[in-house]
């Protein structure tokens, strides 16, 4: 057997944004080892911000492109651009809001009434792990191949497991990380098993080739190969774990509650965005011919997730736990976009655009909410409902920002969250899923109770006179920017939706077959 | 699409899952019913046919062990990848050479990081 190796250099210009993030992370690693301790924090924060923002600019130049390299394993199309932008926005926001946490650590109120540092966090490792997680998530968004997709998910998740356990002296942090780690591994194994079934049936790892194979054999009617359905089911379960859908959500409250708050903000967005990226790549791009099967699965899961997340959140008095269940509920809303997919993948199909827009909106408001908790945690414990008592009189601007985030998560017009829900509901109605649209509305009404409770506590209760430490300017500025974005981005949503509409570029193979 | 066929698609999966569950439960239950239960001290020991433990099974050992183990992985993986690369070196051309240089740089990067962080100091 002769060695048949054709190694051609890939078109690396397509991968610039991802490469920038990767190189930045390597530079961070060196900077962590060589920069003297005094300039540590400023240098590392600077490198991170420059890297992520540079990568975002590199991405914007790729807008409108539709190309693939590395033998089709890496794709630079509209979907890559939009999802990577979401991930980079989340990364920048996380770096900004984690600044005061990294400088001050977790503070606890001592018995003498003074704040002392309970958990100091090594800034270097923190930024490096965030960098690898962001790189992994961007790789998922750009994956054109099952293996690349899986590696991206794992890279993103492994870094997040470590970050969850970063407050290593606090038991809840270690406990949350352990549960997240074990269930995450379990989910990865299921996902991989599903991929082997899909590979076994279609004989290809390439997403486009899988789609072409299925479109050729199945033609949408008649009896579907049960092996294919089993693979589909396993993929749904694996991805469902990663995106924290009910009934695969058990790790979520403990992990979110235990992780340091900036990490919670990060892991409530980036791994979720990666999971949805994987879902779009796997189901819409590769398994599109089976869309009648998987839309039903996602519709049912979306319903259960929305109802469960919102109802359980009512009972929480710990705000971080409450936001964990709220994030489960939002997973449900986002999943409606996936369920509303109608086969064909034309530009008019609003489902995937609405899903993408929802993740972007969720990024701003959810990281904002966790940023406010980070801000409050400086005064001691800071994540119970009582810690918000009378915030409006002691820190009026922060209280206004928190009110905006809560109202946006609830879906009050004209905030960003309202537009996100609006687009998803329109997509659901377009796909004749009226029952899902109604569920979104009812679930949002239920969610008003626990979101407004925080607002009520801030404005109507008396402050309890606990000491307030001064947070860094970076954190306050970050909360301000996120609040303004939550307030205004919804009003200017149409260019964002236009950008999100470019996702259909991912469906090149099917577009060709449909055009014949 | 045909709803009847649509239903039957998933029935096969359902039957598979039910069959797998039923088989598992059946074997366990059968074991409970049929197997005679005669516990003895020797059977209850952790290793029925092995040497009983002499010292406590949870000794403390230094975390440096893990650091060295990780450093070993760095070089081990490097060697594993370099061997096949070296075999086909001629066919790979300049791009193959540069790709391996990038790969080795990244591993080396991890090594420098570990070194600088004090992983090799035994004091």
From TrEMBL, chain B:
Q: What is its EC number?
A: 7.1.1.-
Query: InterPro entries recorded for this chain?
Result: NAD(P)H_OxRDtase_bac/plastid (IPR023043), NADH_UbQ/plastoQ_OxRdtase_su3 (IPR000440), NDAH_ubi_oxred_su3_sf (IPR038430)
Transmembrane stretches in the record are 12-30, 65-88, 94-115
Catalyzed reaction equations: a quinone + NADH + 5 H(+)(in) = a quinol + NAD(+) + 4 H(+)(out)
Membrane topology, from the record: Multi-pass membrane protein
- Give me the Gene Ontology terms describing cellular component: NADH dehydrogenase complex; plasma membrane
Q: Which Pfam families match?
A: Oxidored_q4
Q: Which UniProt keywords apply?
A: Cell membrane, Membrane, NAD, Oxidoreductase, Quinone, Translocase, Transmembrane, Transmembrane helix, Transport, Ubiquinone
**Compartments where found:** Cell membrane; Membrane
Question: What GO molecular function terms would the record report?
Answer: NADH dehydrogenase (quinone) (non-electrogenic) activity; NADH dehydrogenase (ubiquinone) activity; quinone binding
What is the purpose of this protein?
A: NDH-1 shuttles electrons from NADH, via FMN and iron-sulfur (Fe-S) centers, to quinones in the respiratory chain. The immediate electron acceptor for the enzyme in this species is believed to be ubiquinone. Couples the redox reaction to proton translocation (for every two electrons transferred, four hydrogen ions are translocated across the cytoplasmic membrane), and thus conserves the redox energy in a proton gradient.
The UniProt entry, under HAMAP family, shows: NDH1_NuoA (MF_01394)
**Family designation:** Belongs to the complex I subunit 3 family.
* Complex formation: NDH-1 is composed of 14 different subunits. Subunits NuoA, H, J, K, L, M, N constitute the membrane sector of the complex.
What is the protein named? NADH-quinone oxidoreductase subunit A
Q: What is the lineage of its organism?
A: Bacteria, Pseudomonadati, Thermomicrobiota, Thermomicrobia, Thermomicrobiales
